[in-house]
Design goal:
Rossmann fold; 4-stranded mixed sheet; 12 helices; alpha/beta; 2 domains; 5-stranded parallel sheet
Length: 287
């Protein structure tokens, strides 16, 4: 993820706090802090307080991990299920005090309505299908999406798999990676995916999402030389067992290079895919 010139932003930017336009958080904030001490911009006591805040922030019901971006390359993501609307908003505001954006998954309409009202000084992008939201500072919202990385193909077997695909796509956006949607190309009409092979082969990594019997990742795995991250979905009739049939089918894939995440876990697939895509570097596609 790229880093641009540091700026202060809005009410959430406390004294001497540095925010960045792009990426989920700035992993160099500690370096910036040390440089400020060296240059006499802030004193040692103020720096000590900042260091403590960079590490973790207790909220009583949660402890926000502000150091995660430096360790893992991306800020903490909020899994909203089981939390009250007020808790989701408070955690989001804490993260936004240190990062220009925060990703929220599995949120209810009530949680997202409260979030939009509580964070009116931010831009809240809501997914139409998945309960996913991306909250951005005004500066981050005005930035153009990063396009330096190669687009990650996100492939769905059927239209019913789109909620999981949306969660994956918004996760990639939050991490600064573009996507290429290839929808409704399941094995019931195999010619559909065979007609998109060039698009599949353009990615450093491919996310394939399917319910029912979960056969599509095996097909894609036999067509590309990139890693395939398979996502079983809970789409299907009784014997699909809420996605277990697709999960087992993907785990037993005969195609090499297919790895599998949990049922309906578009976020997990996308997070892993972005790490792989980052290893592939930037620039033009191979010819």
């Amino acid at each position: 993820m790229g880093v641009t010139t540091p700026v202060t932003h809005g009410p959430a930017a406390g004294k001497n706090r540095i925010a960045y336009h792009r990426g989920m958080a700035d992993p160099t904030d500690l370096d910036t802090l040390l440089q400020q001490v060296r240059d006499g911009v802030i004193d040692v006591d103020a720096a000590a307080g900042r260091l403590k805040a960079l590490h973790a922030q207790p909220l009583g019901f949660a402890t926000v991990d502000h150091h995660r971006a430096r360790r893992c390359g991306a800020a903490e993501v909020i899994f909203a299920a089981g939390k009250t609307p007020e808790q989701v908003a408070q955690i989001a505001r804490a993260i936004l005090g240190h990062a220009p954006r925060v990703l929220i998954t599995r949120a209810s309409a009530e949680q997202l309505d409260h979030l939009a009202a509580d964070l009116a000084d931010y831009t809240v992008r809501r997914g139409a299908l998945s309960g996913t939201a991306l909250v951005l500072s005004k500066d981050a919202a005005q930035d153009q999406p990063l396009q330096a990385y190669r687009p990650i193909p996100i492939v769905t077997a059927g239209t019913s798999d789109l909620p999981v695909a949306e969660e994956a796509a918004m996760t990639c956006e939050a991490m600064g990676h573009p996507v290429a949607a290839i929808n409704d190309v399941g094995v019931a009409g195999i010619h559909r995916v065979l007609g998109r092979v060039d698009e599949l082969r353009a990615g450093h990594v491919v996310i394939v999402i399917a319910g029912m019997e979960g056969a599509l990742p095996s097909v894609v795995g036999g067509l590309v030389d990139a890693p395939v991250i398979a996502v079983p979905t809970s789409v299907g009739y009784g014997a699909s067992f809420g996605g277990v049939a697709a999960l087992l089918g993907m785990l037993n894939s005969c195609s090499s290079g297919v790895t599998v995440v949990n049922i309906d876990n578009g976020f997990g697939a996308a997070f892993a895919a972005c790490r792989v895509n980052k290893l592939g570097g930037t620039g033009e596609q191979d010819v």
